[in-house]
Design goal:
By secondary structure, the protein is α+β, with helices and mostly antiparallel strands. The chain has three helices and three strands; from the N terminus they run ααβαββ.
Length: about 70
C-alpha cells in the first residue's frame, strides 16, 4: 500500500458511474498503482465487466487495468 494515502483511496474505482456511462461492449482502462491492480481486477470482474486484464507500462511494470462492460 501507499503510506501517504488513506486505505479507502488506494483502490477506488467508480464502478457505479462506469456502469451508467458505458454501453455494452464499451471499454474501460485505468492507470493504478501496481500494488492494487489485482484488487482492481477482482472488483471489475465482480461488478460484471468482462475481458479484465492487467497490462504493463513501458517499463514492464503492471500499471493498467482494462475491461469491457458486458
Amino acid at each position: 500500500r501507499i503510506p501517504y494515502l488513506p486505505e479507502e483511496a488506494v483502490c477506488h474505482l467508480p464502478l457505479p458511474q462506469m456502469r451508467r456511462v458505458l454501453r455494452a461492449g464499451g471499454g474501460f482502462a485505468c492507470e493504478l498503482h501496481e500494488t492494487c491492480l489485482d484488487e482492481a481486477a477482482q472488483r471489475l470482474q465482480a461488478a460484471g465487466f468482462e475481458e479484465v486484464r492487467v497490462k504493463q507500462d513501458l517499463a514492464g511494470k503492471p500499471r493498467f487495468a482494462t475491461a469491457v462492460w458486458a
